[in-house]
């Protein structure tokens, strides 16, 4: 019996606290509780049932209050929604990796060097990509993927991802040629490396003629063009 009584007391206390916060909203947004009642489409006596804690808010009344600009989270819990959003953002920042510094390679031939991530010989560039190992940066030289990827852009690639038809890839052929192209699957173990820039012809070859085909996952571009006056 004591346990049931205690639960009832808590429920009554919560309803009274909700009622107090409804009164606060009426004082902030309306000239009187009567005006709030009119806006809610109810008689003042019905509103008084909520503000006194005698009745529990239902979903219909909560929706009407929200439509009038009330912070329902605050009315129900006493916690301001803005404070909750701020807490959620801080929690996300503290618990999630925002990115890493990745080594910049001059070309795919440098992949053969040991430990790209600890070597001091590589410059680094930050990307907001939540995975470190298996990833590195290449600087684009050429306009064959323009306007999607421009000359001078930096692309982040992830050599552990699976290829899919239409993916942009960093490709190195066994002949030594290297490109940033769009990967296409053809029949009979053939592939095609397409350019987004229509002036360049596609390259058709067998997949085993390639040494690397690594998906591009992100790019960085400096849109400011430094021009001498």
Structure, described:
By secondary structure, this protein is of the alpha+beta class. Helices cover about 30% and strands about 25% of the residues. Strands 2-1-3-4-9-5-6-7-8 form a nine-stranded mixed beta sheet, with no helix packed on it. α2 crosses α3. The longest helix is centred in the first third of the chain and has 28 residues. The radius of gyration is 31 Å and the shape is elongated. The N and C termini lie far apart (about 85 Å).
Please give the share of residues in helix: 25-40%
Name the strands of the widest sheet in spatial order: 2-1-3-4-9-5-6-7-8
Strand content: 15-25%
Mean pLDDT: 84
Number of helices: 6
What order do the SSEs take from the amino end to the carboxyl end, as H and E?
A: HHHHHHEEEEEEEEE
The gyration radius over C-alpha positions equals 31 Å
Q: What structural class should be given to the helix and strand makeup? A: alpha+beta
Measured between the Cα atoms of the first and last residue, the distance is 87 Å
Please summarize the sheet with the most strands.
Answer: 9 strands, mixed
Shape: elongated
Number of strands: 9
- Poorly predicted regions: 1-9
